[in-house]
Design a protein that fits this description.
Length: 464
């Protein structure tokens, strides 16, 4: 398996590699996000607008915990892939082993913080008296299972690095089937509130975390557990390579706080008392709708990162350019299709999450989706560029894109479009991703010059 995976990264035709790795990876990431969509549909249809808004307030805090797992998991994946490209399996296995321990420890700490500080944290997120207790129950339930559930995200990366792309896809699909069954059991069978939703997702992720570890425990994977040897240089490398994804998630959560506060203010101004809850609920519909599309973009670019990192470590720069070209073409097509689906099927999508009797919430959700969807005409470019820069150890450039897209640009657009009211919030995403595309294009030009320089140096060395 080890030789097959490395040979695939090093010599397989880029488009064949794309369909073998990126296509299953895309399905895998989509399956991983389906739990969020399923949860939104169950909460919206079974529990209503208030529960929908309460979960949207607590969910960014849950994602901060998972962001730490992403920081370590993605941050470790880059040096692991490059080490494998250099045939340094000992280093790759050590980074892998240390990262799993680090994820568990970080999640235990974050879980304790969210458990005991749930009330002030939810207040900070914009929860009023009507939404506070529901948000707190959801957050504390997720925090209880966080340490084991968080490992699920990283193990998905490690399975794909080891060539277990289809295994990763199957585990993610099974995770969602289990989530669906547990949601039905807890919300319909036991008539539980949002606590049942949090339990369903958490239990599913914990079970799949354990299942994902089995190939590594059997020691038949490219990556294997080894006696961990922690050192400062490894921490720095993981932090640098994982910082773009981590800062993107953290910045996004801060932006969500500001968005929720803005939505409460504008919603009350637009619709009067209770209008803030409706506005936050519409925003939740947008985020769940986005989960239908963005995982497909991220799945392609993230799945190809190990192959890009491997060839970068092997100094095969022509092959790196061919692989990333396939990624841009694939994500560009997904971006166009996503915009079309969200625009033409906005009513159908909104009906997944909104009760038929909530007419005002439904109508505003349809309107918001029709504006929001044009973000996907641009979003694919920034996502692919950021992933590419992370894979070739350009963390500063990747971080610049991630922080700008998740925080700087949204705040700028929030101020620029404030006079448009709620329409300004829905259009915020379009403006943000347009700016992100421009920034990504500038950085790619600089990277292209760096690659040409490296190729010239290799040519000179080979001629000597």
């Amino acid at each position: 398996m080890k030789r097959d995976t490395e040979a695939m990264y090093a010599s397989m035709h880029p488009w064949k590699l794309f369909f073998i790795i990126a296509f299953p990876g895309m399905i895998s990431m989509f399956a991983m996000s389906i739990y969020s969509i399923i949860e939104g549909a169950f909460i919206g249809q079974r529990l209503g607008e208030s529960a929908f808004a309460a979960v949207n307030i607590a969910f960014p805090l849950v994602m901060i915990n998972f962001s730490l797992a992403d920081l370590i998991g993605v941050g470790a994946s880059v040096p692991i892939s490059i080490a494998l490209g250099r045939k340094d399996h000992k280093t790759a296995n050590n980074i892998f082993s240390c990262s799993v321990i680090m994820i568990f420890a970080a999640s235990v700490i974050m879980g304790l913080i969210m458990m005991f500080a749930a009330t002030p944290l939810c207040r900070m997120m914009g929860a009023d008296d009507a939404l506070l207790s529901t948000s707190v129950r959801y957050l504390r339930t997720c925090a209880l299972f966080g340490p084991l559930a968080s490992i699920f995200f990283a193990m998905d990366n490690y399975l794909r690095i080891s060539g277990y792309v289809k295994t990763s896809m199957v585990i993610n699909i099974c995770s969602n089937l289990l989530t669906l069954a547990l949601l039905a059991l807890f919300l319909i069978g036991f008539h539980m509130d949002v606590t049942g939703s949090a339990l369903a997702i958490s239990i599913s992720m914990c079970v799949c975390s354990l299942v994902a570890m089995i190939p590594f425990l059997r020691r038949k994977t490219l990556l294997q557990f080894a006696k961990p040897k922690f050192h400062i240089a490894m921490f720095k490398e993981i932090s640098a390579c994982g910082s773009p994804v981590f800062l993107n998630n953290i910045s996004g959560r801060i932006t969500s706080i500001l968005m929720n506060i803005s939505l409460m203010t504008i919603g009350i101004k637009t619709w009067g008392e209770g209008g803030g809850t409706t506005a936050v609920a519409v925003y939740a519909v947008l985020m769940y709708s986005s989960d239908l599309c963005w995982p497909l973009l991220y799945g392609i670019s993230d799945s190809l990162s190990p192959a890009i990192g491997y060839n970068w470590g092997a100094a095969s720069y022509d092959r790196v350019k061919k692989i990333i070209r396939c990624a841009f073409i694939g994500t560009g097509i997904i971006g166009l299709v996503s915009t079309s689906i969200l625009f033409f099927f906005s009513g159908t999508i909104a009906s997944f999450f909104v009760k038929a009797e909530d007419i005002m919430l439904f109508n505003e959700s349809v309107h918001a989706i029709k504006l929001f969807c044009f973000a996907y005409l641009f979003r694919w470019f920034g996502v692919t560029t950021q992933s590419f820069l992370s894979a070739i150890e350009k963390p500063v450039m990747a971080t610049l894109i991630s922080v700008s897209t998740a925080f700087v640009f949204p705040i700028l657009m929030l101020g620029a479009l404030w006079s448009l009211g709620l329409n300004g919030i829905w259009l915020n995403f379009v403006g943000v991703n347009l700016l992100s595309t421009l920034l990504s294009g500038i950085l790619l030009t600089r990277v292209d010059r760096d690659i040409k320089k490296r190729q010239t140096e290799l040519t000179v060395i080979s001629d000597q």
